[in-house]
Amino acid sequence: MWAILGVVALLVLTAVLAALSERERRRLKISRFVARELVPVDRLIESLPGRTAFTGSSLVQCWKTAASVLKIDPRLLRPSDRFDHELAPVKGFPVEDELVELGELLQEVIDESGMTEDYANCDLKLETFGEYVRFLARLRDKRH
Fold it and tell me: What is the DSSP letter of 125?
């Protein structure tokens, strides 16, 4: 009986510590953006190089989808935000970061576009949020 209570207590403690750790990781990640002005996504899209090749709604939809995966207000993100700096995983937290989910989203859209073979052996280097959004929009436009 005491062993079962001990195991339950240990599981509860582990769950609480995991939740607190995740909350701290998210707080630290979001703190990188809190000093920024909230800019409407439409205005942010206007600053994207090569945006005229896409419909504005396609870029806005991709921007908001990617921001949702990152769990960051889309008005705080900038096209120049780098995956190795502003969007990088928080050091010291041995958990999967939202960037893994962003990669999974990209793979899903590549698969749906029927271009899996085109990108199978490609060493794709998307360094900024703006590059990611443009690439995602290009794939989605090809899908339709």
Answer: -
